[in-house]
Amino acid sequence: MVECNQRGHGGVIINGKEFSFGPGACYVLFPGDTVTHLTDPEDPRGGIYCILDAPQLALQFKELGISSEAPFISPSLFPQVEGYIEKMLQDFKCRDAG
């Protein structure tokens, strides 16, 4: 799963390790991860995500240094990742409506 936090603050606990984040953060969850999502009640988080069933993609993330221990994608890539997810969601809606 790839999640992009568009607004608010929160965190995620992945395999017992807690990570905090704010707007503009993207992170990856891998198969087998134990995950708890957290949100700031004063500034709830919100965003978009997609679940991908692509074992080779997980390997590519790991080659880039993204893992359960270091799950965040570089903030400079946020607009690009967010755009990919929004495009996938739009494409899905178009196929689903037909």
Strand segment count: 7
Order of secondary-structure elements: EEEEEEHEH
Order of the strands making up the biggest sheet: 6-1-4-7
Regions with little confidence, pLDDT below 50 for 5+ residues: none
Instruction: Name the helicity range.
Output: 25-40%
Molecular shape? globular
Mind telling me the C-alpha Rg? 14 Å
- Strand percent estimate: 25-35%
Structural class by secondary-structure content: alpha+beta
Mean pLDDT: 90
Output the number of helix runs: 2
Largest sheet report = 4 strands, antiparallel
Separation of termini? 26 Å
Give a written overview of the molecule.
The protein has 98 residues and is α+β, with helices and mostly antiparallel strands. Helices cover 30% and strands 33% of the residues. It has two helices and seven strands; from the N terminus they run ββββββαβα. It has helices at residues 55-63, 78-97; strands spanning 2-7, 10-14, 17-21, 25-28, 35-39, 46-50, 72-73. Strands 6-1-4-7 form a four-stranded antiparallel sheet. Strands 3-2-5 form a three-stranded antiparallel sheet, with no helix packed on it. The protein is globular, with a radius of gyration of 14 Å.
Task: Please describe the structure with a list of short key phrases separated by commas or semicolons.
alpha+beta, globular, four-stranded antiparallel β-sheet, three-stranded antiparallel β-sheet, 98 residues
Give the secondary structure arrangement, pairings included:
Blueprint: E1 2-7, E2 10-14, E3 17-21, E4 25-28, E5 35-39, E6 46-50, H1 55-63, E7 72-73, H2 78-97
Antiparallel strand pairs: 1-4, 1-6, 2-3, 2-5, 4-7
